[in-house]
Design goal:
Number of strands: 10
Strand content: 25-35%
Strand order of the largest sheet: 4-3-2-1-5-6-7-8-9-10
Number of helices: 5
Order of helices and strands: HEEHEEEEEEEEHHH
Length: 199
């Protein structure tokens, strides 16, 4: 019996740690903003894994401490800070080339996407299912959106060609992309340039 005391004690600490994993945040509904605590799923450490889960549903504690589940179509956006980074995720119509997460039986018409750049032209980050055996899955897929237009997926292999065509309405920017001034890693700078000078 004494041999079991330490393992049971360690297990109880482990469970308590899981229960304590939460971050303060906000849910922006249509007519109100609610301060809540978002539950961090499982043993996830990297924020990419957490954002992947949050894209489809969020478990949170309301101001009364009640556990609730939020689906993307039920709110306008969520905001929180994790590992000293501020995150904002908007509820948007699910792009046609994003598959719903069957594990959660997601039937929502919307998905929470992380906002990379806000403005007339928006940059969204979509996170794929993380895999311990394929670390390339940790990188986001980028989507561009002008006002209420359809989403444009940023294709890494055809980045320059696609962006030259996409920014035809801004000849100066299109020319700079063609000359190689804006590689893929500079996508935020490129979009900020468009929003400041061409939008």
């Amino acid at each position: 019996m004494k041999k079991l005391i330490i393992p049971i004690f360690l297990l109880s600490l482990f469970v308590a740690e899981l229960e304590a994993r939460s971050v303060k945040g906000q849910i922006h509904f249509e007519n109100e903003i609610v301060e809540v605590k978002f539950k961090i799923p499982g043993l996830y450490v990297y924020y990419e894994s957490i954002l992947y889960e949050f894209q489809y549903r969020v478990v949170y504690l309301d101001p009364n401490g009640e556990r609730r589940i939020l689906k993307p179509h039920q709110a306008k956006e969520i905001r929180f800070n994790y590992a000293n980074q501020d995150f904002r995720m908007l509820s948007v119509k699910t792009p046609s080339n994003i598959k719903p997460k069957q594990f959660h039986n997601a039937q929502s018409t919307n998905v929470f996407l992380r906002v990379g750049v806000d403005g007339g032209l928006k940059l969204f980050h979509f996170y794929k299912n993380p895999s311990w055996f394929n670390f390339t899955n940790f990188g986001p897929i980028y989507f561009l959106q002008r006002q209420d237009d359809l989403y444009k997926r940023v294709r890494p292999l055809f980045f320059r060609r696609d962006m030259i065509k996409y920014f035809q309405d801004c000849p100066e920017l299109s020319k700079r992309i063609k000359k190689g001034h804006y590689p893929k890693r500079s996508i935020v700078t490129m979009i900020n340039h468009y929003n400041s000078n061409c939008n």
